[in-house]
Here is the input.
Amino acid sequence: MLFLILLLGVGFIVLATAKFKLHPFLSLLIAAFGVGIAAGLPLSEVVKAINEGFGGLMAYIGIVIVAGTVIGKILEKSGAALRMAEVVLRIVGEKRPQLAMSLIGAIVSIPVFCDSAYVIMASLKKSLAHRAGVPLASMSIALATGLYATHTLVPPTPGPIAAAGNIGASGYLGTIILIGLVVSVPVMAVGYLWAIKVASTIKIKGEDEVVYSYEEVVREFGQLPSAAKAFTPIFLPIILIGIGSVISYLQYTGGIAEFLLFLGTPVVALLIGVFAAFPLLPAWNEETLTGWIGEGLKDAAIILLLTGAGGAFGSVIKATPVAGLIQDFAAGESLHGAFILLIPFFVAAALKTAQGSSTAALVITSALVAPMLAEAGITGAVPLALVVMAIGAGAMAVSHVNDSYFWVVTQFSGLKVTDAYKAHTMATLMQGIVAILVTMLLWFVLV
Here is the structure.
């Protein structure tokens, strides 16, 4: 009966968001109340669990999500994303334009939502395809899969940060970033191979008509920032968090170590990243300091509410006997070792496929599996980081018609829906499968 209650709760979330288009925030809150009451918790305990789950998660991860989103907005509005694209293109060379687009996407999508990043890069992708004489569909899928490779795997993208907070791994963001980058390389590679082997066979109507040349795309954006200014807001926080993780792992002590640990705290590192993005602002005035940052805060608000509601749902599960059943299942011999990663993978894949949002799949799945991790012996930086990877892998598979990103890719590339299924949807399925296989391999090697 308890498992049935949990399944009905998850089923309600999927049905409400996918069929009736209810916002995931309300779906999660209603499900949290429903599961708690149906499982027999006292009404006061249900309210307490929801409040503590929502507020507790925000205390760990709220400012980090806001700071990461603001950095992404400044990179988007200032033209820094285009400058990064230029740098990668120079390094890779124009003879390998699909590889350049994949790399550009993987880098830009670390702080910028893949939907927004695809729109920013759409004109650049089309002009480069025309200039290099390669099929536009191939370039479109190379960019789309490159963006997707880091979207669900590498913080400070909000989805992986939220998942880390839900399972108690917010203190291990440095490890999660490092492992996320490792996993994202083969994931990007399979997307690139799909782009050149499968998508290149697709012809897009009107692709030979180029509206802007490459130079005109860049010039239309205005004066682009320098490469150093463009890359610093992304890499400085990652480096600081990485240094903090190393010092924590080696257990260094002393004044310098404490100061570096302070700088490597995710909240501090991401706020430093925000200030490192300020030189990208064309002017320090109300339009940028209030307007651009305000747009970033609006984008963050939805993620914050969704993350908090996921934390509330997870807190209710932990407070009910359902948590004990999940722990008993995890302690059993049916799945153990690396194979236990298949549980969060399949749960996240089912949620992603059913309701479309990768971020929602990451939040809900991490809330569901959190109670079982300690009982299954999954503790510490590396094992918890691999759980985040498994959830992220599931949240990749698959992007289809109920996913906003699917429509961004089709509309801004000119792909027909049937061709998009073949090129984009199947590519995201392959990326999800490769991600979970690499994650399981890393478990065997590292754990």
